[in-house]
Amino acid sequence: MFGGEGMNSVTYEALNKSWKSTTKILFGQEMGELTEYEPYLDGAAIGQTVASSLSGKKLWVASEQYQKEAKFFDYGEEQNIVSKSASQPFDINKIKDIDSIVEALKERFIYSGNKALGNSRNIEHSDTIIDSTDILNSSFIVSSKNVAYSYLMRENEDTFGSTSSGQSTHIVRCFYNNTLRRCFECCTCIGSSDCYFSYNIMNCTDCLFTFNVRTKRHLIGNVQLARDEYVRLKAKLIGEMAEQLKKKKQLGFSIVDFMEAW
To answer: Where are the domains of the chain?
Structure first.
């Protein structure tokens, strides 16, 4: 998606810095450059790359459902051109009935991409962004900062490869959550922090591979551990994840795989 374009941009530099600090928090060490992990992260960014019918410029649009013949324009740079064209009168000689009016309208249908609204800045290859800063390859992001390869976020910071996770910070590959802190590969979790590969947990802290529990701490595989034992085993497991990520730029399994198996 990003394809290496804009590698030296202000947006990418801010996000790359955020990525490194976030991975250090999660894994105890930086995982390298953000672009190295694009194939691993970009599956969460619902939408597609299209080309402007006016300039040929690549755009990001927040849907994959447009018809193949649909035309697009850059909302930030080409809106005035489209507005002038759309305001031109129809050829009255071609208006015979309702069907002919609809056909004439279809010729003017053109969809916008790269929409950055409100107080937004440093937005690249993203669509439907509102009051947000430093956003890359993402859609439907509101009041957020440092978000890449993500979809449907509100009041998030330092978020990568995630979908529908609001009011969360320092999360990577998390799906359908709310109020998470420092989490990796979590799904349908609320009010939890420092959790990895967990599903349907609420108000939990320091849990790995934990499922369907409430108000728990120091669990691995749904087994309650003493703090010292938890810390030791967590360090081993997180170290193995980090080693595989640095080597392969992805893991061979995901919390989504576990969900689909249930």
So the answer is: 1-80+111-164, 174-262
Measured CA distances, 72 to 52, 79, 204 (Å): 5, 11, 45
> Tokens 């937004």, residue?
120
CA 174 to chain centre: 10
What's the half-sphere exposure (Cβ side, CA atoms, 13 Å) at 96?
4
CA distances from 174 to 96, 139, 188, 227 (A): 54, 16, 9, 25
Report d(CA 37, CA 42) in Å as an integer: 8
Copy the structure tokens of residue 29: 């060490």
In tens, the pLDDT along 26-72 reads 999 999 999 999 999 998 999 999 999 889 999 999 998 888 889 99
Please give the structure tokens belonging to residue 164. Answer: 């529908």
Return the closest-CA partner of residue 46 out of 141, 171, 180.
141
